[in-house]
Design brief:
CATH class of the largest domain: Alpha Beta
Number of strands: 17
CATH architecture of the largest domain: Alpha-Beta Complex
Mean pLDDT: 94
Number of domains: 2
CATH topology of the largest domain: Quinone Oxidoreductase, Chain A, domain 1
Radius of gyration: 20 Å
Strand content: 25-35%
CATH superfamily of the largest domain: Medium-chain alcohol dehydrogenases, catalytic domain
Order of helices and strands: EEEHHEEEHEEEHHEHEHEHEHEHEHEHE
Low-confidence stretches: none
Number of helices: 12
Structural class: alpha/beta
Length: 348
């Protein structure tokens, strides 16, 4: 099989590798689509803190956002069969500890991510080997494109759940990447009366509005405070979802949220947050929830997609073959103004 294999910083090569053979409880899956994530780019360039501290092990195969078809199953597999359309978890648990036996795979202390940190090989490849317990059926009416977008959508959904968005509340999302845009859409689906998104690129803000978001604030043209005042008025903002990765926006959000509000943080910062206003945090009765992935959110995300309530395919702004994986990663830097989600079309 062909694999886009990463041997070190900026050293991605298309190579031939043996196709894996599924063992006990495993399934060999033919990859159809793989999303190109900002984390992939950070690993590829070596700028990721986990590369610098040695937690990313080379050589490795990137790719944790994918959809595909089961090709072959090992012994003991009963939940999937060859020909099934599927998506896969972003982590592989040990399968034998208490949490795994109870089905709480995300709480396994020996879990290994897929295609990122201290990881098993990911889906920049024609085939991927996965424990069948970490596979989810892709509904017949959900495309492979949307299947490969389940992971960012599920992470976005978790950020909305952690924000505890309720009917009639006001929500502001900071950041217009796939997770930020999806979070704004999902907050609306959860019953928020008004949802705004703040970012710097008009192209991305327009995409969010097309998905049904109410308000777009371009922070290069107006301050965040003025944008909120103009758009939300006396209602203010009850919940903020911080998906930008900007420490300045994170700190500013403390001064913009309503008393008793919740800030749901779904971004990497890779540095300390200086000058954090802890008094505003305390006396404002503000809660901060961290969102470290998509724990338990795949099934509800797939159900929303199957019901026609969530379609992420319009966020795909670039398509590449597996042989163009290096170009897809390089374009992450040069096409920032108009790139939301790049997709590797691996098999058709």
């Amino acid at each position: 099989m062909q694999v886009a294999r990463l041997f070190g910083q900026d050293d991605l090569k298309l190579i031939e590798m043996s196709k894996p053979i599924p063992g006990l409880g495993e399934a060999l899956c033919k990859v159809m689509r793989t999303g190109v994530c900002g984390t992939d780019y950070a690993i590829y360039t070596g700028k990721f803190s986990f590369v610098k501290n040695g937690m990313v092990k080379f050589p490795m195969t990137l790719g944790h956002e994918w959809s595909g078809v089961v090709e072959q199953i090992g012994t003991g597999v009963t939940n999937v069969k060859p020909g099934d359309r599927i998506v896969g978890d972003t982590g592989v648990s040990c399968g034998s500890c208490y949490e795994c036996v109870m089905g709480n795979y995300g709480k396994c202390k020996s879990i290994h991510p897929v295609g990122t940190i201290n990881a098993i090989d990911g889906a920049y490849s024609e085939y991927i080997l996965m424990p069948a317990r970490h596979l989810f059926h892709l509904p017949d009416n959900v495309s492979f494109d949307n299947g490969a977008m389940v992971e960012p959508a599920a992470t976005a959904l978790y950020s909305v759940v952690q924000a505890d968005v309720k009917i009639g509340q006001t929500v502001l999302v900071l950041g217009s990447g796939p997770i930020g845009i999806a979070a704004a859409k999902l907050a609306k689906l959860c019953g928020a009366s008004k949802v705004g998104i703040a970012a710097r690129k008009d192209f991305k803000l327009k995409k969010a509005l097309e998905l049904g978001v109410d308000i777009a604030i371009n922070t290069t043209k107006t301050s965040l405070a003025d944008g909120i005042k103009q758009s939300f008025g006396d209602w203010g903002v009850d919940k903020i979802i911080e998906a930008s990765g900007s420490t300045e926006l994170f700190k500013e959000s403390l001064n913009l949220i309503n008393l008793g509000g919740i800030i749901s943080v779904v971004a990497f910062y890779e540095r300390m947050v200086d000058n954090f206003d802890i008094d505003r945090f305390v006396f404002g009765d503000v809660k901060i929830h961290a969102v470290g992935g998509s724990l338990g959110m795949y099934k509800p995300t797939l159900r929303l997609m199957a019901a026609g309530m969530l379609d992420m395919s319009s966020l795909i702004t670039g398509r590449y073959k597996l042989s163009q994986a290096r170009q897809a990663l390089d374009d992450m830097q040069t096409m920032g103004d108009t790139r939301i989600k790049s997709m590797l079309d691996i098999s058709r």
